Q: What sequence folds into this?
C-alpha cells in the first residue's frame, strides 16, 4: 500500500490532477484558479500543466460558472466548479436548483449532469462575513442533487475523484478550516464508497454523528469523555444527501444515545434529518432523545467571537452528559 | 416602420427594399418554403390555443406575430448547430424537426420536457428566464474545445434581457469568444411590462458595451431575419465570436392563455402591427414577384389543417403519465430516497395509465 502524508489542500490538488489525467473531458472552472491556484491554492499548478482550456479562470459571476458548466455537461464535458467561498454560492443558487438538479429528469435521462460544485464551507479561519457559512442543507433538500463532505486528506483525495466520476451533480463541501491539516493518503485504493458513512472511533455509550470540520471536534470530545469513562462512537456522515443511515442505525441500536454535531444552525438541518430518521428507525432502542449541537440561529458572527458560535468540545461534552444522565 | 437602424429586405406591403449590408439570396421556392413554415406554425399555434380553451392544455404560449422571426432564424441554422430556446420558440422547434405534438406535451402537463434534445439538437424549453443563455455559452465553449465548426444559438425576449444570467452570458461569450448567436425577440411586451421598462436604449446596442456586434432586424421580415442570422452563424462558426440579434417584432396574442392583454395595451397599437403581419407580406411578394397561384396557397392551408387535426388527435390521446414515472430519472444513479418513495407508492396501490 503506497501511502504518503499530505495536507487536505494538497490531497484535493492531487485528486483533481489524477481525475484530469484519467479523463480529458474533465475541466476546472472558477475565480482565480489559474495562475493563482485558487485563494486556497487547491488548483495550484494545474493550469500550468493542463492549459487554459482545461483550467479556466472565470469572470466573476457564480451563476455563469455553474450555468456554463451545465452547457459543457450537455456537450459531454465534466466540469468541477470552484465557488470561492460558501457565502458566494447564492448567485448560482438558481442555476443549481432550477437547472443542475432538474435537467436529467426534464430530459428523461438524456442529459447527464455530471458536474461537481466545490464549496469551501464552515468557519474557523477568522475571516470576514460571508466566508464561514454552512449552506449544505439548502442543497441537501433539493431533489436531483447529492451533497458530500470530506474530513480527512485521504477522503479528500478519493472523494473528489469519485465525485467527478459520478453521473449525478454533486455539491462537494470542503471544511476550509481543515485544509492545512496533514494526514495519510493511500494512493492505491479508495477506502470507502462516496456515499458511505464511516466510523472514525468505536464506542459503546453514545453514537456521535458529524461531518466536515466537526469530525475533529467530535474525536477530541470522545477522547476527553473516555478519560471520564464514557465511550463515544464517532461516525463521519461523509454523504449528507443521501445519508447512509444503516451504519448509523446499527450504532444507535448498540448505544441507545445519539448526539449530532454540526456548525450549521439546527433548524431544518442535516442534523435534524439524522435525528428524525434515526428516531424512526431505532425508537425502541433509544435511552434518551437525540440531541443536536449546532451553530446558533443567528447570522454567522464576527469571527472574533466565532468560537463561541461553533460547537466546542465543551458544548459537545455537555450534550454527552445530558444524554448520559437522561432518565437516571 | 421607417427606422434606419433596422435591417429590412421586405416592406410590410411585400415590396423588396434595398439594404446597405444585406441582400436576399433566396429563390422563389425557398421563400415559398418559408411561407409554408410560417403558415403551418401559425395553424399549430391557433390549434393549441383552441385546445387550451377547451380544457385540453393547461396553458399555451402563443407565437402569433413572431413567425417570421422564428422561421427566418430557424431556417438559417445548420443541422449540426445546437439551439437553446426559452418557452415560446415553437417556430424554431418546427425548423429543428420537433414533432408538433411533442411541443405541446409540456403544456398538457404530462412532462417537464417534451422531446429528446440531442436528437433534434434543440434543447427542451427553459422556463426560468435567461437560464438557457448560460447553458448555450457553456455548450459553445465545449464546441470550441472540440474544434468543431458548429454554432450555438440561444433565444430570449426583451423581458429576459434584464436577467443577470443573460448579461453574464454576454460577458462570458465575449471573454471566451464563444461561437454563439444571441437571438433576442423583442416582442415589445413582457406580460404587461413594455420593453421601455427593460431598456432605455435599443436592445441591440447593449452588445457594443460587451464587445461584440449587435444588429436590429425587422423581426416580421423573414427574408431579413434569415440573412442576418445566417451571417451571424457563419461568423460564429468561423471563430469570429458572438453576435446579438434583436428581432424587432410584436406579440400579437396574449403572453399566455392565462393573460389578458386588454388590461395593459390599447387596440390601436395591435392594429398597427396587424398591418405588419409577417405572413401576409411574404404572400404578397410571392404573388407579385413569383406569380404563385392561389391554388398553391390553398394547398398549404389544407396541409396545415391536416397537421392541426393530427395534432388535436395526438394531444387528446396523451394520457396522464404513470404516477410511478415521477421516480424515473430523478437521478442517474440509484438513490435511497427515490427508491423509498417508489416503494411507498407501490404499496399504496397507485397504478398508472389512463385514469
A:
Amino acid at each position: 500500500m503506497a501511502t504518503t502524508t499530505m495536507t487536505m489542500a494538497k490531497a484535493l490538488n492531487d485528486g483533481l490532477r489524477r481525475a484530469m489525467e484519467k479523463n480529458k473531458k474533465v475541466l476546472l472552472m472558477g475565480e482565480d484558479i489559474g495562475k493563482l491556484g485558487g485563494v486556497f491554492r487547491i488548483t495550484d499548478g494545474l493550469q500550468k500543466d493542463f492549459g487554459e482550456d482545461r483550467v479556466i479562470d472565470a469572470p466573476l459571476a457564480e451563476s455563469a460558472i455553474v450555468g456554463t458548466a451545465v452547457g459543457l455537461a450537455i456537450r459531454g464535458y465534466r466540469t468541477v466548479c470552484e465557488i470561492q467561498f460558501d457565502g458566494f454560492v447564492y448567485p448560482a443558487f438558481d442555476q443549481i436548483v432550477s437547472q443542475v438538479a432538474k435537467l436529467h429528469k426534464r430530459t428523461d435521462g438524456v442529459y447527464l449532469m455530471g458536474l461537481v460544485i466545490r464549496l469551501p464551507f464552515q468557519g474557523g479561519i477568522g475571516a470576514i462575513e460571508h466566508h464561514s457559512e454552512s449552506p449544505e442543507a439548502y442543497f441537501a433538500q433539493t431533489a436531483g442533487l447529492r451533497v458530500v463532505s470530506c474530513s480527512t486528506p485521504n477522503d479528500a483525495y478519493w472523494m473528489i475523484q469519485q465525485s467527478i466520476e459520478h453521473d449525478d451533480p454533486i455539491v462537494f463541501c470542503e471544511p476550509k478550516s481543515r485544509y492545512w491539516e496533514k494526514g495519510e493518503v493511500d494512493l492505491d485504493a479508495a477506502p470507502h464508497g462516496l456515499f458511505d458513512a464511516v466510523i472514525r472511533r468505536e464506542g459503546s455509550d453514545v453514537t456521535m454523528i458529524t461531518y466536515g470540520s466537526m469530525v475533529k471536534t467530535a474525536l477530541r470530545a470522545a477522547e476527553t469523555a473516555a478519560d471520564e469513562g464514557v465511550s463515544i462512537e464517532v461516525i463521519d456522515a461523509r454523504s449528507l444527501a443521501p445519508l447512509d443511515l444503516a451504519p448509523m442505525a446499527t450504532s444507535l441500536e448498540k448505544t441507545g444515545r445519539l448526539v449530532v454535531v454540526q456548525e450549521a444552525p439546527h433548524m431544518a438541518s442535516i442534523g435534524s434529518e439524522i435525528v428524525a430518521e434515526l428516531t424512526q428507525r431505532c425508537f425502541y432502542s433509544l435511552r434518551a432523545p437525540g440531541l443536536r449541537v449546532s451553530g446558533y440561529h443567528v447570522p454567522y458572527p464576527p469571527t472574533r467571537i466565532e468560537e463561541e458560535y461553533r460547537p466546542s468540545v465543551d458544548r459537545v461534552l455537555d450534550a454527552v452528559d445530558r444524554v448520559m444522565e437522561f432518565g437516571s | 416602420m421607417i427606422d434606419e437602424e433596422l435591417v429590412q429586405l421586405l416592406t410590410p406591403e411585400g415590396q423588396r427594399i434595398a439594404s446597405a449590408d444585406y441582400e436576399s439570396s433566396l429563390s422563389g421556392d425557398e421563400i415559398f418554403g418559408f411561407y409554408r413554415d410560417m403558415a403551418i406554425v401559425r395553424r399549430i399555434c391557433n390549434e393549441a390555443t383552441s385546445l387550451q380553451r377547451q380544457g385540453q392544455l393547461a396553458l399555451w404560449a402563443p407565437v402569433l406575430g413572431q413567425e417570421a422571426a422564428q422561421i427566418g432564424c430557424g431556417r438559417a441554422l445548420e443541422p449540426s448547430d445546437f439551439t437553446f430556446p426559452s418557452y415560446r420558440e415553437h417556430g424554431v422547434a418546427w425548423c429543428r424537426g420537433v414533432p408538433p405534438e411533442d411541443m405541446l406535451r409540456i403544456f398538457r402537463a404530462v412532462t417537464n420536457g417534451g422531446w429528446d434534445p440531442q436528437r433534434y439538437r434543440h434543447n427542451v424549453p427553459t422556463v426560468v428566464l435567461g437560464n438557457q443563455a448560460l447553458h448555450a455559452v457553456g455548450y459553445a465553449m465545449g464546441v470550441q474545445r472540440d474544434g468543431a465548426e458548429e454554432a450555438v444559438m440561444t433565444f430570449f425576449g426583451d423581458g429576459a434581457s434584464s436577467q443577470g444570467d443573460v448579461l453574464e452570458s454576454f460577458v462570458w461569450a465575449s471573454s471566451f469568444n464563444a461561437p454563439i448567436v444571441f437571438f433576442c425577440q423583442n416582442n415589445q411586451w413582457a406580460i404587461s411590462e413594455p420593453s421601455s421598462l427593460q431598456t432605455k436604449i435599443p436592445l441591440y446596442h447593449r452588445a457594443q458595451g460587451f464587445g461584440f456586434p449587435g444588429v436590429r432586424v425587422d423581426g416580421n421580415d423573414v427574408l431579413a431575419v434569415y440573412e442576418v442570422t445566417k451571417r451571424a452563424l457563419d461568423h460564429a462558426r468561423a471563430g469570429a465570436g458572438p453576435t446579438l440579434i434583436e428581432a424587432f417584432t410584436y406579440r400579437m396574442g396574449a403572453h399566455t392563455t392565462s393573460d389578458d392583454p386588454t388590461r395593459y395595451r390599447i387596440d390601436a397599437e395591435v392594429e398597427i402591427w396587424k398591418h405588419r403581419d409577417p405572413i401576409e407580406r411574404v404572400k404578397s411578394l410571392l404573388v407579385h414577384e413569383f406569380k404563385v397561384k392561389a391554388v398553391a396557397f390553398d394547398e398549404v392551408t389544407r396541409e396545415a389543417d391536416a397537421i392541426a387535426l393530427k395534432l388535436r388527435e395526438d394531444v387528446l390521446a396523451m394520457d396522464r403519465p404513470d404516477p410511478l414515472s415521477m421516480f424515473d430519472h430523478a437521478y442517474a444513479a440509484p438513490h435511497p430516497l427515490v427508491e423509498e418513495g417508489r416503494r411507498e407508492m407501490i404499496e399504496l396501490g397507485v397504478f398508472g395509465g389512463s385514469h
Notes: Chain A has two domains: 3-186, 198-325.
